[in-house]
Structure formats: structure tokens, C-alpha cells
Amino acid sequence: MTPFDALYAAPAALTAHAPVIVIAAPLVGACAAALSPGARSSWVISVLTTAFSLWMAIALAGEVAREGVIDYALGGFPSPMGIALKVDAIAVTMALLISAMGLMGAIYSGHALLSEVRAEKHTLFQAGYLLCVSGYLGLVLTGDAFNAFVFLEISSIGTYALVAAGERRDRRALPAAFNYLIMGTVGATLYVIGVGFLYGATGTLNMADMGVRLVTLGDNPAVQAGFAFIVAGLGAKAAMFPLHGWLPGAYAGAPTLVSVFLAATATKAAIYLLMRFTFDVFPLDADFGRLFLHGILAPLAAAAAIVCSVQAIFAREVRRMLAFSSIAQVGFILLGFSLATQAGVSAGVFYMVAHALMKAAAFMALGAFAISLKARLLSDFAGIGREAPWSTVAFAVAAASLAGVPLTMGFLGKWSLIEAALQARQAWMVVVFAIGSLLTLVYVGRIVETMFFRAPTPGAPRAKEAPVGVLAPLWVLAGLSVWFGVDATLPASLADAGAAALLGAAP
Amino acid sequence: MTGFAVEMSAALNVVLLLMLVAIGLAVAHTRNLLTAILLMSVYSLVSAAWLMVMDAADVAFTEAVVGAGASTIILLGAILLTRGATARVDWRAMVAPALLAVITGGLLIYASLGLPEFGDPSSPANAYVGRMYLERTGEEVGPHNVVTAVLASYRGFDTLGETVVIFAAGLGVALMLGFGPRATLAPAPEKMGDHHVVLRVAAKMLIPLITLYAFYVQFHGDLGAGGAFQAGVILAVAVILYGLVFGLRETIAAVPVKAARSVAALGVMLYAGIGVICMVNGGAFLDYDYLFSPQVEAMIPANLLGDPHEEHHWGQHFGILFVELGVLLTVSSTIVTIFYGFAGRSIDAEEAKR
Amino acid sequence: MLLAAGTAGLLVAMVLMIARAVMGPSQYDRILAANSFGTKTVLLLAVIGYLFGRPHFLDVALVYALINFVVTIALMKFFRYRSLAQPLTASAGERAPHD
Amino acid sequence: MTYLLGLVMALTVAWFALSGQTAPQFLVLAAVSVLLSVWIAARFKIIDRDSSPYHRAPQLTLYTGWLLVEIVKSNVAVIARVWGPRHDIDPAMVSLRTNATTDLGKALFANSITLTPGTVTVDVEGDRLKVHALMREKASPASFEAMDRRAAGAADARKRER
Amino acid sequence: MSEFLTHFNYIAVVIIMMTGLFIVFSSGNLIKRMIGLALFQSSAALFYISLAKVTGGTAPITLEAASEAGRALAAEQVPGYVAQHGIDGVVYSNPLPHVLILTAIVVGVATLAVGLAIAVRVREAYGTVEADEINAVSRIDAAGLQAEHAP
Amino acid sequence: MTEALHWIGGGLVVIGSLLTLFGAVGVLRFPDVYTRIHAASLTDTGGATLALLGLGLISGLTPETLKLAFIWAFVMLTTPAAANALANAAYGSGHKPRIGAFQIIPSDAPRETDPEDADRSSSQ
Do B173 and E97 lie within an 8 Å CB cutoff? Predict the structure, then answer.
């Protein structure tokens, strides 16, 4: 079985409430962090609560593996009266991913924040960070359409402020945060209106219940409008192709910790919710759903994968490069989902996890350089491989995974995406994957080449190796990218189960 | 056939909505920010009146205190700190948004025809879960105000989230504006003289009444319109009024910045703590039926609410009371924190630094 | 019936106030309109509360009167002091004499 | 101390006017609410004769009655001007001196001027008021003296002794 | 009643929604955009509340006084209406959307506060809140970076 | 008796609302902000007094009447204060009136009437 077996053994009393504890732990932690007297103590709280949340997520994964879907009725009221948390294989996979990234980020923040955020702001910053973690966890675990909106907003409002805090390094973080806020809020409001349409048509907010009742409704313009609103709203949050304008600035400007966490989780949580609606709530046999997946989602995702990869190649700043890359990779993930087959969705989930690991590691490495070196442009990184070998090599590993070099998780992810596309007889998608990967190779190659083989600019500031507190989470992530590239049992089984759970409700 | 009051309500609905549309268009048209803010304040007032006609008393309450009160003051603070009118926008830059708006609007209006008729009691929205709440609140939860019951108990988790959202906003504003130049904390220059004896006296008389009213709204949430959010904002408005009249320095002396921030966190903790207590006692998170052990529950006097024979859900009753207290703490202190953030910053100091 | 007539009168007055708020011409006119609009809304709420026989309208009317006042003071400070933080007196510590 | 007691009494009355509930729970909540409000007022240091002139309630009530009559008597004048020819008004600014010594007295006087049709207090500085009048001929400084006397009498205890 | 009147609320809501969106995307001033956003968010509130209204209904407060008024209201309807849709002789409007919109309003003010705080910081960093000017300065920032680090 | 009170109360409400309406017309018709303040603040307080009194008559001696009294006190306290604040803001910022030059009649000017007359004229 898996190496996590030992951790499954949480006390039964805790496991029974694990779905809510996963969310509540960072939430209470956020309050504690806001109350804590200093930067150090808030960091300790941050690490402890995210660790606890991760432990509970692991316990929850074990529980889901044993019991199947877990419904947790908050307040003791059965749905549709009360709010229910619905934990199935895909939800728990997302929760594992988010809480693990939350922990990694929290550990990393101990040193990373020092250079980027003024010391007296640390307690508030940590509190905001924990609120974000809690918000995304709630978003993936909830089974209630409106509750999802609330958590979407918790995470978003925290995120806007955190992104804006990057102004100390680069003032462009501020307009970027503002644009993010506008797009995010428009997206969230569109989502709410969409949910309103669905509520008007079905009378319920529980997603599962909604799904059951929608089947009987047939062709209703209000339902279609609701779906369109939800897609547009979550699409804006997930940086789906034409709505991605906010992302490069936000990722590039934010403090590294925030970039790390956002790149690993933010868009993914929104994609997850979108897929939950597409597969779980809407009757997939309706022409409308098919039209959306094949006629809208797939072409847009393909366009993202290619256009944004090209933009990444021409970006001058490394962070911006990685941000554009994120949009392109989101395109890959969405292509997998748009197949709507077990193999396709499973590949999409797998690639999602892979991308989270490698992009988080890449941003972490950039942050590690930033501690000693105020580097932004690609040319600033020339020759850094000799000065800070540990962080550079970790970055290279993540980059290799991004480019799809064999023996990395990225390679397996892309491979399974291509396989799924072939299986579904979507040859054009294979071409998109191939071109996208090639383009990725180009920009990743440029970075790695500069880091290792260019001579440093004479007179430029020297980089120093990052402290252990930064290297440890960095290497954990990079290591996982390689390990799962060699032995993918754990993520693949999670992805398979997740895909089955997502598609299971579809007829 | 319908009767007079029903017809009247329908007519008010149409008139007030038309007013809202007109104000919205006027906001879009004006280029002056202050005008836009004033119109938004009026918009809030009208929309709150409309909400009353729509039977949404609690929402109207919230819209009045939040939309017309808190938002307007925050917006005023913001334009004081940004100082500028909107630049004239080239009409060509408006074509795309206008087209987008018109097309989407047309599609939407088409789509809305698929929605049930306005006021239809048998529409899915009104006949299914909504009706279940109306039927069961009495026996399951207790409060006379069904909105309070749904808010604090059935959907208590949403409300926890909402409290956290407000907390997050306070955190965000404090993070961005809370550590800035506080030059305006200096006392007003002498030459200003004392011109405002009327306002000072009025404010002094009003503030205790406002705080009392806030507590009234807080504690009568299960009997009528209102509840913790509204009370929290009203309480904060009392502090803001004091700040406006007596200056930020005096206000911070009475309500320290740090205290406001801490109380906001404590409020969320209280809310979540109630949930955890329920969990420890064997129920689900926020299942107030498990708030008290039977021994404790037996100690509660039966005539606490007047009629000793009426059936009571003490767990639910006190659960709602406590979580609303948490909401009150968080909301009031967060709004105060936000006010401090905007009022305590000085654009002049910032400019002098350059 | 009389209450309905009262409601109609108040609504017309409100519409006129919106016209003044939109037309201006000065910002003070707009503030005046907004403030007076608020008072009319208070009355409107009280009257339709009785029209529909629902007393809880009064709580909302009360809160309107209050909010209206605070917002007007904020606006006054906006114009006179260009700051929300300045006290309205030279020193707030100065208190009225006791009798 | 008088003010504190007055405030507590007034708030208690206000609470029951608002609430009307007498069940034990609400009595407890009433006590809590009144005490919290007073505590907040004390923190704000606003418990003085301006904020709680409730010991002068009889005089103030009498004054209010007188003022109401004045208001009703003269609302008509302004309404006539509203419907009258466009420029049938002749505004002017008047400067007044008040006899009131306390903030409360000044505020009461200024507010009364505003409440009476045709005049609005624009500014109060020291014992000087600037009043904007709709009709110049109705607004000689002397015409405010009765009101000033009554307002000061209602608000300021010492006034009578002078 | 005609289709127009029965769906009048939705049409009004859509117009307000579109006005809000138009302000958000056509205005260059950050504060104005936040105002547009507030308008847009409020349209969601109007929409939900319109869904919740029941003809002849009263506020979902089951106190005696409210119920009496509710009975009077309900009695104005055709016979059988109350029996079918009422609870204890009173027709109530739907409380659930009210609860949801309470949440949404609070979320709206939270967003407004954070957005304006960011706008204030933008003004401090750039000296303006006009998007065009900010973009121009940002481009100079990026170019300046280039020049600064060029070999 | 109650029936009569209902009619009287309703009549008062109508008169109050008409007063408010006239005030609104005044706000539209008067030439500048200072004169408009007169129209708005007076009729607001007058209209509110009448309308609330009317509602009080309709509801009789009930808790609601107390609330109405509360609202009335609030309006009477805040409306003039707000009018004062607004006039002060306009005056203090140097906003010019459209008609009636700001010639200030000083308080030291010789008295035109004796105090007894003033008592009456102030109330017109």
C-alpha cells in the first residue's frame, strides 16, 4: 500500500469530524496568528495548523478509501436543509494537495517573508495566508453551491491583500492585485448569479440534489444561462483562456510565498469546482454540456496552451514567464477534462497534481534566489547555478518536470494526457500537446541554460545559497516530482479514483 | 382577483425598481466621483425600501447600514486619499463594454423568461427547501424570525464563512493601510476655531442611544428584523460618528487599534469555538443541540423567555445567541479597523515623503 | 387608502430629489438631495409599514435616520477638512462646565 | 454623577420603548445593554450635560412644545414661497449673539433656528451665530431674542439667576 | 398579466447588472470601477430577492403581530390560495434567498473595502488612479528594469 | 372612535406627505443651495412630524407608537444638525449663493422693533 498508512491512524473521534477539521484548523489558526505577539510565533502557529490540517486530510483520505463518499452534515441538519460537506475521492485528492501545499508554504514562509514583507506585518500576513488555505480547502470539500461561493470569497479576499503586499519588491503588484480583485469579484458574482438561476429552477443549493432535480427539467433557458454564468465566473477564477488577464501580473508581483501557493492551488480549486458542476450537477448527456466541453472548453484550452506558451517564451521576467506557463498548463489540464472520459479526466487530475508540485517548486526556487539577490529578469540569473547550486538544481528538476523530461512527474502527466487523447480519437489534441510541450521546452531551456551555462554579468550582485528553512520544502517538492515520476502509484491511484468519482454521477 | 395591499405592493415594486434603474444609469453617466458615491448611497436607500416591500426585512436592514452607511464612508475615505476626478474616457473605449453589456443583457433577458413568474408561490425556489424552513423552524430551531434561524443554525456554516470574509477584509485593509503615516493624528490647527457646537452636542446625545440601539438589534434578532451583522455595523457607526466629530486621536485613545484587531479575531474564534464545543459534546460541527450537556440544560429556568410551557430548544437558543455575539464582535471591530485604515492615512504625509 | 395617497406623495417627492441629486449643479445640492432623500425614505418606510400592517418596518426606518446623519457629517468633513480624522474642535478634551 | 444616573435612566426607558419584552432573559439583556452602552459612553468621555441633559427634561419638554407651535405656525410662509413666483425670496445672512453659555444651550438655540421656517443656522462660533434667512425683512437679529431667551432658559440652569 | 409584467423584475435586474458591468469595464478610474462593481454585486441581490417574493406573502417572521398582518394580506387573495400555499393561514415569502443575500452583501462590502484600500495604495505608489496612466508608468517600470540590468 | 382616529391619522399622513412634496418642489425650484436647504430641512421636519403623528393616531397606544416617537425625536435632532453641517460646509468652503449677496447684517445693528414684536415676528 502507500507510505501514508501510518498516518491514517488518527483517533476515531477526530476522523469522524475530519472534513470540517481540515477546514477549521487553518481558520482558527488564522485568528490565533492575528492575535499572536510576533512574527516568530505566528509562523509557528501557521506551520502547526497547516500540519494538523494535512494530517486530518490524510486521515480523511484513508476514510474515503475505506468508506467511499462521506457526507458530513454541518449543524446536524440533513441536506438539502443544512449545508453538507461532500468528500469523495476527487475532493479528498484536492484537499490533500491544498493542505500539503499549505504546509510547504508555511514552512517556507519562515525565511521567505523576511526579505519581502515588513516585520510588523508578519502576523497579519500569516493570518491572511491561513485564511486563504482554509478558503481553498472549504471550496473543494463543500457540497453546497452557495457555500462554495463563501469559501471562494474567503480565499479571494485574503489573496488580493496578500498579492498587494508584494508592492515592497515591485510596485506593479498593486495594480495587478486590483485587476485580480476586479476579475475575481466579477467572476464570483457571475457565479452567484448562475447559482441563483439554478436555484430558481431547482429550489435547492445542494449540488448533488441540484443534479438530481436538473435531470428532470430538460431544456430550460434559465438552466442554460445559469450554467453559462457559472462557467464564465469560475473560468475567470481559473484563468481560463480569454479571462486570464489578471494572472501574470498577480503571480509575478505577489510575494513569493503567495505565488507559490497560488500557482499550486488557486486555479486548480476553481477548475475543480467547474468540473464538479460540469460532470456532477449538469446532466452530461444534454447537448448543452457536450457542446460546452467539445465546442468551447477544448478549443479555448488548446488556444491557451499554445498562445500563452509563446507569450512565456517572449517574457523578459522569469516570474512572468512562469505565470504565462501556468495559464498554458491550465490549458493542458482542461484539455484532459474536456475529453470527459475516465482516462482523460484521470490524466487531467494527475497533471494537475504534477503541475502543482513543479510550479510551486519553481516559484520557491525563484524566491530562494530573491532572498540574496534582487533578480527579476532572465539575464539576472546568469551563472547562478554555480553560486547557489542547491536551489538551482531544485529549480532545474522542477523545470524538467515542466518540460516533460522522462523520469519526472510532468512527463508521466503529459504521456497520460496524450494516451487519453488518442484513446478518445482526438488526434488534434495530440498535436496541441506536442506543440505545447515543445514550446515549454524552449522557455524552460532558456532559463536553465542561462542559469548554468551563462557567465554571470560582471559587477552584478552575487547570489548566496538559501537557508535550510527554504531549501527543505523546496527539495521536498522537487523530490516528489521525481519520485512520482518514477513510482506514480499514489498520485495515479488518487487520480483514477478521483476521475471515477467525478464521472460516476454522470449517466 | 387580488386585494388592495397586494396591488399596492406590486406597484411599489415597479416604481422602486424603476428608480433603481434610473439611479444606476445616472451613476454610469456621471464623471464626478463624489456624485457617483452620493447616488450609490441613494441607490442603497431605495434598494432597502424595495427590499422591505419584497418582505426581506433583514436584508433591507443590512443594505441600509452597510450600503448607505459603511460603504459610503469607506468610499469617501478612499476618494479623500486618491484625490481626483475621472478622466474623460474616449467613446471608442466604451464601445466594446457597451456591446458586451447589451448582448449579454439581451441573452439574459431571454434566459430569464425560463424562470418562474414573479411572486409564484409554487415555483421550485419557493416551494421546496425555502418552504421546508418555514415549516420546520418552529419545532427544530425556535426563533420567530425564520431568517435568523436559517442564518445562524441551518446555514450557520455559511455565516461562519461570512464572518471570516469580513475578518479577512479587516486584515487586508490593516495590512495595506494600517501601517502608514498617521500624520492626521495631530490635533486640528487652532485657526479652525470651534464652529461645530451643534454637531458636537447632537453626536454626544446620539452616541449612547446608537450603541443602545445596536444592542437592541443584536438581542432581538430572533423576534424581528435585524441581527448581529446589522448590530455590528451600527455599533461601528457609533464609533465612526465619534471619530468624525471628536477626531481619530480621541477615538483611538478610547478604542485602540490593536484592541479592534484582536477583538475581530476573537469573534471568529468564539463562533468557531461554539462549533467545536458541539463537536466535543458528540454532535456535528455547529450542531447546537449538543451545545449543553443535559445537566446544564436542566439548570436553565423554564420561564426564561416568558412562557414556561412553550417548548424550547435551549441548545439552539443559546447557540444562536453566542454565535451572534461572535459575529457582533468581529463585524463591529472590523468596520472600525477599516475606518481607522482609511481615516488614519494621510495623502499629504505620503506626498511629503517623496 | 389615505396611507396609499401618502405613500404616493412621498414617492413623487423622492423622485424629485433624485432629479436634484442628478442635476446638481453643485456638490452641496447633491448632498442636500441625498440627505433629504434619506428623511423621505424614513417616512416612506414608516408609512408603508402601516400600509401593510407590518410594524418591524419601524426598526429599519429608525436606522435610516441614524445612518443618514452620520453620512452627512462625513460629507461635511469631506468638504471642510479634507480628512476624516480631524476633530471638529481644537481640543476634544475641553468639556462643558457643570451646573 | 447626575449625568450618569440620567443617562442610565434614559437608556433604560429607551430600551423598553424599543423592546417591550419583559421575559427574564430580556431583562438581563436590557441590563447588559444599558451597562455596555454607558460603559462605551464613559470610554468616550461623553457623559456630561451635553449628552445627558435628562435632569432638565421638564424644561426641555416645555420648550419643545413651544417650539412645535412656532414651527407649525410658520411653515406656511415657506410653502407659499415654494409655489410663488420664481424670485419672491430675498435671502440674507444675519449675525447674532446668543446668551446661552453652555454648548447645550447654543446647540438648542441653533437647532431651533434651523427648525423654524425661513432661517438656517450656518455657523456657530463662540457666542456668535450666522443665520441664513430666506426673507430679509423677517430676519432682524432682534427677532431671535425670544427664542434665545427660552432656549437658554430651558438648557442652562444658571441663566435664570443672572 | 403579460409576460413583461411577470418578468419585469428580472428585466430590471439585468439592466442594472449590465450597467454595473459596463462601468467596471469602461471606466479607467479605479474608484469608479469599484463603484461599478458594487452596483453589479447589488444586482445579484435584487435577483435573489425577486426569486423569493411570494404574492400576498409577508416577511418570514412568525410573531403574532406579523401573522395578523399576514392573515389580512393573505385574505385578500383568491380563496384556496392560502390553504394551498400558506402555513397556519399565512403566506410567507421565502427566507432562504434572504439569508444568502445577507451573506452576499457582507461579502460585497468586504470586497469594496479591500479594493479601495488597494486603490489608495496604488495612488500612493503611482500618483494616480487612472488605469491608463498606471499602465504607462508600469511599462516604464519594466523598461527601466531592462536598462538598469543591461550589460 | 378608532375609526375616526384612523381617518384623522390618515389625513395627517397625507398632509405630511404633501408638505414633503412641496419641500421637494422647493428644492427643485429654489435658485441655490442655501435656499434649497430651507425648503428641504423645514418640510422634512414638518412633514415628518405630521406623518409620524398621524401614524401614531392610527396605531393608538401601542409599543409601535413609542417607536414612532423615537423616530420623531431622532429626525428632529438630526435633520437640523445635518442642515447646519451642510450649510456650514458650503459656507465654510466659500460656496457663493446665486441670489442675495452675502451681506451680513450685524447683531450690533440698531433694533428695529421692541422685543415684544420680535417675539411674534420670529415665528413667521
Answer: no
E78 and E144 share a domain? no
Give chain E's mean pLDDT.
Answer: 83
For chain B, domains (ranges, CATH) are 1-115 (1.20.120.1200), 145-354 (no CATH)
User: What integer pLDDT is reported at residue B87 of this predicted model?
Assistant: 67
Q: Which residues on neighbouring strands pair with residue D121, listed in sequence order?
A: D131
Q: Residue B182: which pLDDT band, with cuts at 50, 70 and 90?
A: low
How far apart (Å, rounded) are the C-alpha atoms in residues B267 and B166? 11
- Which residue does chain C place closest to F81, by CA atoms? C69
**Nearest by CB: B127 against A125, A203, A224:** A203
Percent over 70 (pLDDT), chain B: 91
Percent of residues in chain E assigned helix, strand, coil, to nearest 5: 75, 5, 20
Q: Nearest CA to E50 among A223, B47, B24?
A: B47
> How many angstroms separate the CA of residue D162 from the nearest CA in chain F?
19
| Structural domain includes residue C8 | yes
Domain of residue E111: give its range: 3-53+95-149
DSSP state of B191: G
At residue B21 the predicted structure's pLDDT band, cuts being 50, 70 and 90, is very high
Which of the four pLDDT bands, split at 50, 70 and 90, describes residue B187?
Answer: low
In whole angstroms, give the CA distance from residue A410 to residue A400.
Answer: 8
E20 interaction partners in chain B (CB closer than 8 Å)? 24
| CB burial string B160-188: b at 16+ within 10 A, e below | bbbbbbbbbbbbbbbbbbbebbbbbbebb
Tell if the CB–CB gap between F105 and D117 is shorter than 8 Å: no
* More confident: A507 or A386: A386
Q: What is the pLDDT of chain A when averaged over all its residues?
A: 87
- Nearest to B216, CA basis, from E84, A160, D13, A148: D13
Q: Is the pLDDT of residue A446 over 70?
A: yes
In a domain, C99, yes or no: no
Do B196 and F88 lie within an 8 Å CB cutoff?
yes
Q: Domain spans of chain D?
A: 2-43, 56-161
E-contacting chains (≥3 CB pairs under 8 Å): A, B, C
- Give the best residue of B19, B34, B194, B195 to mutate against chain F (max F CB count within 10 A): B195
Cell for B103? 448582448
Quick check: F97 contacting D, CB < 8 Å? Answer: yes
Q: Do B147 and E98 touch (CB under 8 A)?
A: yes
Query: What domain count does chain E have?
Result: 2
- The pLDDT mean for chain D works out to 79
Task: Using a threshold of 3 CB pairs under 8 A, tell whether chains B and F touch.
Answer: yes
Q: Which of B137, B132, B144, B133 is nearest to B307 (CA)?
A: B144
Whether residue E41 is found in the same domain as residue E62: no
What is the separation, in whole angstroms, between the first and last Cα of chain B? 71
CB contact under 8 A, D83 and F25: yes
**C92: its cell numbers:** 476634544
Task: Give the residue-averaged pLDDT of A459-480.
Answer: 82
- Measure the CA angle with vertex D37, ends D32 and D40; round to 5°: 125
In this prediction the ipTM stands at 0.91
Nearest to B68 by CA among E43, F25, C60: C60
Q: With helix as H, strand as E and coil as C, how does F39-81 read?
A: HHHHHHHHHHHHHHHHHHHHHCCCHHHHHHHHHHHHHHHHHHH
| Chains adjacent to F (≥3 CB pairs closer than 8 angstroms) | B, C, D
Grid cell, residue B270, equals 468564539
Number of domains in chain C: 1
Least confident of A93-97, A198-202, A389-393, F98-102: F98-102
Peptide bond into F31 cis (omega under 30): no
- The amino acid that residue A184 corresponds to is G
pLDDT at A279 over 80: yes
The shortest C-alpha distance from B135 to chain E (Å) reads 7
Residues E85, E100 within the same domain? no
> Do E117 and E136 fall into the same domain?
yes
C-alpha cell at C93: 478634551
